[in-house]
Amino acid sequence: MTDGTDAPGGAVSGGAVSGDAVSGGTVRRRALRERAVVLAAPVLLVVLQAVITVLRVGQVRDGYGTRNLEASYHVLLTVESLLRNPLSESWGLPTLTLGAPNDKWIGWGAAVATEHGDFVYTSFPPAGFWLPTLLAAVRGGELGLAGLVALNGVLAAICGVLLYALVTRAVVRMERSIGLARFAGVCAALLYLLSPEALQSHGAVYWPHSLLQPVLLGQLVLLERLLLPGTSDASRRRLLWGLGVLTAVGCYTEWTAFVFALGTGALVLAVPALRRRARAAGVVLVAVGLGTAVVLATHYVLALGLGDAVEAWSGRFVDRAGSGATYQHLLLGYAQSFGGALLAVLVIVALAAYWPADRGRRDAVGPVLVAASLVAVAENVILLQHASQFTFDRLKFGIPLALLAGLTIARLTRAGILVAGIAVGVAGVLGIAGDRSEATFYGAWPGAVRTNEDMVDRIRGVIDLECATIGSDLGVRAYVNLLLDRGVHETVTPAELERIAGDEDSCGTVHLELEYLYADLPLIATATVVPAGGEPVRLAAPGY
Q1: Over the stretch 428-444, which tens digit does the pLDDT of each residue have?
Q2: How far is CA 116 from CA 86, 102, 120, 129, 483, in A?
Q3: For residues 535 and 506, what is the distance between their CA atoms, to the nearest angstrom?
Q4: Which of 185, 173, 225 is nearest to 362 (CA)?
């Protein structure tokens, strides 16, 4: 028998609960409630993106079609190439040649061959292809469009949470309420996540721009911390190291990162107020940007040779910068990618201009982050043709739009905040509607996928594709290579293909006649199969 005085923690004394236990329990419950409130909005954003991603996975498994889907097939072909070829031959660069000996030395667009016959895509740095390759390797070589969608969903969720954090902290610095800060952060994240461009380029379309988005936002988070007063020297060193690492990763992922690093670094060093607060950050951005450029150039030159590398880069730059594109094309592209979000931001800015709140203080750091994010968008002006043609190149514009919306909401009256919330909601609905319209426009692609798969099965019934020499009457991009699991000679006639086969240890030829339903997304209309020593067999899709 005991009197309870020795109970653990002094929780019980004479059958009564002690005041310390009650106080401790209350404090813990209050702390848990506060933590739940703090995490509620980010968790909801992650859940929303998870729902979007799961729905998209189901769609791509049914043959979903959308603009720029050829980019995802390109990535999947590069993943296969990197997994099947030794690093000593691919150099870890974005190659497009599969691993069999009879796949070597088969040209692919404007790609450049290594000394081993592997064709390297020189238009983008390699890191954007490394992440899906690593994911495929972990999954035993299996990835597919569904795997890219899942990866894209994770990247989008990270972007949403980082946008929320940046806006929330900025509004708190304005000395507005924490509730308004969370509301503004959620609005900023939703404008981004539900824009047509994010639904596409963080959905079925994966390209290096998808990976660059969270990297850019991570750099903005670190830059924000470096611009704020009161950061200890030890913390500043860690932040600078982090900024340098993210800058190098970004520059090895996509060209925009070089524009961001050099432009933002120059901005920090040129503006006296910024230079006093974050001179080291400016130096890191510029130095790492220039250093990574040297390393990246060396990487390509070692694999391709100086002359071929320089010729490829200069040719790609000329094509991507010009080719008849105009600033009107670019502006129309932004409207296509962010139409509802653009309208919402215009409404929010107009409300702040004409009916601003009469309380709160200015935040000096938030506008700098908006300006830095706009520096990245300058890449669209430099490579005007690419940004006009490929919507994923405009994805970066979603960051300054979201930041501007969130920071401006903090300057609104109560009525203005309500209108801003409605505008963001309407923008989200328009984004989803635009995404569904896009899928409708590409409604013929699921049927084409099934027809193409049936055609390949019929071809395999006539000839072994592993030893055949394959060609096409039109240009070939990654989809056809993945479908046949082979290299394909593009824009060749049957006679030219027969001559090529005569120089190889070939078991026959397969000549494809393609019909492009959409950009680089073809239907195999007919296939003429000529087994070695046999008679030609013509296979046709229904209706051909």
Answers
A1: 999 999 999 989 999 99
A2: 11, 12, 11, 20, 24
A3: 15
A4: 173
